Amino acid sequence: MQRVFEALSSSVRRKILAYLAHTELSAGEIAGRFSMSKPSISQHLSVLESAGLIVGEKRGQFVFYRQVEDSLLNTLNGFVQEACPVGRPLRRESAALADERRRGEPDADEPEPRRR
Description:
With 116 residues, this protein is α+β, with helices and mostly antiparallel strands. The chain has helices at 2-8, 11-19, 27-31, 38-50, 72-83, 87-103; strands spanning 25-26, 54-59, 62-67. Strands 1-3-2 form a three-stranded antiparallel β-sheet. Strand 2 and strand 3 form a beta hairpin. Helix 1 (2-8) runs antiparallel to helix 4 (38-50) and helix 2 (11-19) packs parallel to helix 6. The longest helix is centred in the last third of the chain and has 17 residues, at 87-103. The chain starts with a helix and ends in a 13-residue tail after the last helix. This is DNA-binding transcriptional ArsR family regulator. Pfam families: HTH_20. Keywords: DNA-binding, Transcription, Transcription regulation. Residues 1-87 form the HTH arsR-type domain. One of its GO terms (molecular function) is DNA binding.
C-alpha cells in the first residue's frame, strides 16, 4: 500500500494514469506529453508499474503501457480524476485516443510507417 501512496503522490504520475485511463500509450507517446526528459518519464513509469497501477508490454522496439484492469485503486483514482480539473481533460483525451484507435484512424503521435 505504501508504494501506491508514493506513486499517487506525484502530479506527473497522476497525469500519466489519466492519459492511460482509456487507452494504452507507448513510452514515447507518454514522454511527448510532458516537458521533461525521457529518463525522468521512465522513472515515473517504473514507480507506477512497481505499485501495480500500470503494466508495460514490449512490442518490437516499443514498450506500451496501460492501466491494470480490475484494480480497485485505479477505479478510485479514476473517480477522483473525474472531479479534478486537471485530470478530467486528460481522461477525455485518453478516451478520444481510444476511439481513434478503434476506428483505425492514424494518431499524430504514432511514428509513420517506413516506406521502401
